[in-house]
Amino acid sequence: MKTTHLLMLILALALALSACAANESTPVQNAGDDNESVMGGARIGRDEWTPVFPRAQSAPEHLYIYDARGQSYEMLIMLTSLQGVVNQTEPRIYMIHTNEVDAFWLSEMEEDYGVTSETVENPWDLLDIFADELSGLIVYDPDLLASTDLADTLAGINGALVVSPDLLAQAQGHGLEILEGMDFRGRFAHNVEMFTWAMENVWPSANQNAICFLNPVVYTSRDYLVSNKILTLMLDMHIPDERALLEEVLAQTPPNIPILGWAIDELLGVIIFSEGNKFHVATEGARNMSVTSGLPFPELSQDHAGPFAGQLENKTYIAFAYTDGDNVAYSLDALYHKWQDPARGQIPLGWEITFNLVDLGPMAIRYFYETKTDMDMFIGPACGIGYIYPNRYEDLDTFVSMTKPYMEAADMDTIWLINDDLTLADDAVLAYTGGMDLLGIFLDYWPNLDKGFYFASDGTPVLRSQYTYLIGPEQIPGIIETKKVEKDMLYPDSPFFLFIGVNGWATSPTYVKEIIDGLGDEYVVLRPDEMFAAMDKAYDDGWEF
After folding, report:
1. pLDDT digit string, tens, across residues 387-425
2. Helices (H) and strands (E) in the chain, counts
3. 241 phi and psi, to 5 degrees?
4. What is the spatial distance between Cα 20 and Cα 216, in angstroms, rounded to a whole number?
5. What is the pTM of this model?
6. Which of 31, 64, 200, 295 is 20 to 30 A removed from 271 (C-alpha atoms)?
7. DSSP strand pairing (161-163 vs 376-379)
8. Are 202 and 212 within 8 A, CB to CB?
9. Mean pLDDT over all residues of the chain?
């Protein structure tokens, strides 16, 4: 049985692991003095709230809607820069990108927040509406595609439109010209030269409260980066020169700020970011945040597990919870699709969801809270306000203190933690439990060789997921059978607790319900927070673990 778990663990880790400055003038032409103001104090609808994430300067009132589905990459890069610049002063452009979710969130804003809208059919007509608000053009280099990241940062600082060489003549036909020093074709030989120049010449005028690592082939989320003047770059940590510059960037930027986007290599990236005292927030694929981040703060509440009622029996208690809710893009899109599954609400389920939506997508987190059932509960995201490895984060106390107000805003008393070495030192647990009032902690997206449940030194119950994240849902019956053998052999006379963290991308609630419906009388399925209450009850009743 333990050999099975070890092989699953090895497979998960293997898959995870596979995964001369130019002499030009300083590029800031229209930089304002507001690059720090977005973090400056209370925002709409909540007193004494200082957001970690930059928010739109006002709530959206009237939106111009453009359906960008089917557009070319070059057009999408241009349009997201237009959206970001225009939305700096007031959210006015909203785009439909991939599926019905974008339209759904628009309808939520119209119904719940009184937003009005009108559709624009032609992208050049959209440009004409706002051309007078643009200072000019920035041309990126298609032969060095990461120049789109640099161009977006400069677009936000200068209020300019980013274009490809192929769209340049058309953009000029709409009354815009290239800004001085802003044609990057052939300017840099490689990423290291380009982003070294960016750190010297662009970073001082960029937003000092966040940075972003964004794959240049990705066009979504760029509107938010442009709107908030966030330094955007891409460095491959597997290439020595780029790795060295990445570490310099982390050393030159403030501690305890988010790194948005997505690391090329999740495991290595989060290690490096954590050691640089930065937290990773997965926003790659998140759309229209330059609009949604202006919405009023929602008031959120959920039911909480009280003391375990009745007597514990010598049975296996099982809880299921969905992973990946720390990912902003997941919470805005894939989670919506899981939420519509007809089995949701019929079985006890936990849902990891990012409370960063309080800042970035209030309409979404409000929707999920308002439509949850008594069977649903929300779990604080890995590993708090951002994705870190706690054993590598030097200023963990500050990180926890930044997480606490978001946990309280989302009415959460459980959190999911992940560590790169499949352990969690007791002092790291105590940093969380000492800084927040927690019912319990969920640990990791993959199993270890321990039994999967224990108590920290301060008595906080901890449940380790027994699901090997990178393997599909078909493993669940085998996990249950393996743990049955383990209980029968090693813990025949006491309750046993089994927590399965279900892959949020791959597994439907309907499938989980089929598993639950097939369980025998020796199993009891609980909501995940109720599992912590059951563990506390077992401890208080003197059961041997």
Report:
1. 999 999 999 999 999 999 999 999 999 999 999 887 888
2. 20, 19
3. -65, -40
4. 22
5. 0.90
6. 200
7. unpaired
8. no
9. 90
